[in-house]
Structures are given as C-alpha cells and as structure tokens.
C-alpha cells in the first residue's frame, strides 16, 4: 500500500514538473519573439492560489494560454524548435508535442476577443496588465481569470473559482465589476456545498 502511494506521488510530482517545464520553455520562446501571451486556465489558478496559500493550490492536467490570433503564424514558428505543432481537433486549437501527440497533454490556445464556444456569455478577455511570476511567466490577472472561469462554468471551473475564493482572491471589487449573469454564477458557486 505504501509503495503505491509513493509511486503515485512520484508520478504526480513528475507530471507537475513536466507542466512547468513546458510553461517555462513555451513562455521563453514566445517572449523571445515578442509575442504577447498570458497563461490562463488551471495553471494560472494554481499559481495565483499558490502565491496566497501553497497548500490550497490544486494541480491541473494541461496548459492553456491566451494569444492574439494575428500572432498565430509567428507563434507556430517560435514553438517549432520545442517540438510543438499546431492542431485543430474537436473545436479546440492546440499545440501538441510531436513526440507524444495526445490532446490531453497539449497546450490549448484561447484567442483574445473570441468566444471559445458560441454559447459562452463572453469572449476571452483582451490583454490587460499581467501578473508576472518570479520566473517571468505572464499570468492573466485574477479579474480576467474569474470572468473566464464564470463564462465557461464547467465543474472544474467552479472548483477553480472555489479555490480562488477560498484564499481571498475574488474581492468585492472583482465581484462588483461582473455583469449580472456572471455575478449570479459566482453566487451559485458560493452557495454550493
């Protein structure tokens, strides 16, 4: 039993390290070419929450970044040396590792100012002032991240919202700036057990 737990912890640690290796290499490549980006999604939640309370940070399976569609051609050239190539599958734009082209280990691309799905309430937010990690990675700001999570509103997004709210990242100012439909969703998340 202990052996399984140690193996599981090792696999978990390895997965987290691989994600952060990709984040570091990818953001260095984009920054080196002057391509504006923001890390969004579960990794952004993880890093924002970890800053407040490392024990409250929850891992994620993949990496999401926001970019401007006009930079896509330059982005693809910048990531080619990393072994990443562009794919569009099941309505998702992504960069996959040519050595291990699994969609779940891909870097998902979200385009600023565009809806991820037609039924979403809002498009992905425009670039605003990023939060910069100690390693120089540019994260989407908490207000934009909250809006994105409330817009997609899947189970994992609601969990991410609870994580951010639990460490005090969702302030009264952020809540007040939300349009009514998103504010209603935030209230619903807060009312969940």
Observed structural traits:
five-stranded mixed β-sheet, alpha+beta, globular, 7 strands, two-stranded antiparallel ribbon, 193 residues, Beta Polymerase, domain 2
Account of the protein in words:
With 193 residues, the protein is an alpha+beta fold. It has one domain (2-140): 2-Layer Sandwich (Beta Polymerase, domain 2), CATH 3.30.460. Helices cover 47% and strands 16% of the residues. It has 7 helices and 7 strands. The protein has helices at residues 2-32, 41-52, 72-79, 142-152, 155-166, 172-176, 180-191, and strands spanning 37-40, 63-67, 84-89, 92-97, 107-111, 131-132, 138-139. A 5-stranded mixed β-sheet has the order 1-2-5-4-3. A hairpin with a 5-residue loop joins β6 and β7 (138-139). It is globular, with a radius of gyration of 17 Å. The model has no long low-confidence stretch (mean pLDDT 89).
């Amino acid at each position: 039993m202990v052996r399984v737990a140690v193996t599981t912890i090792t696999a978990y640690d390895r997965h987290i390290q691989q994600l952060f290796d990709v984040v570091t290499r990818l953001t260095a490549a984009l920054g080196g070419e002057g391509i504006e980006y923001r890390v969004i999604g579960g990794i952004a939640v993880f890093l924002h929450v970890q800053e407040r309370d490392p024990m409250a940070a929850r891992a994620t399976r993949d990496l999401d970044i926001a970019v401007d569609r006009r930079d896509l051609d330059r982005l693809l050239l910048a990531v080619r040396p990393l072994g990443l190539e562009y794919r569009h599958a099941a309505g998702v734009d992504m960069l996959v590792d040519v050595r291990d082209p699994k969609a779940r280990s891909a870097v998902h691309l979200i385009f600023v100012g565009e809806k991820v799905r037609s039924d979403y309430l809002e498009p992905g937010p425009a670039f605003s002032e990023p939060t910069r990690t100690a390693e120089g990675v540019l994260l989407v700001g908490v207000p934009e991240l909250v809006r994105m999570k409330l817009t997609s509103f899947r189970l994992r997004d609601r969990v991410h919202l609870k994580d951010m709210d639990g460490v005090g990242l969702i302030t009264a100012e952020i809540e007040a700036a939300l349009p009514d439909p998103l504010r209603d969703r935030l209230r619903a998340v807060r009312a969940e057990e």
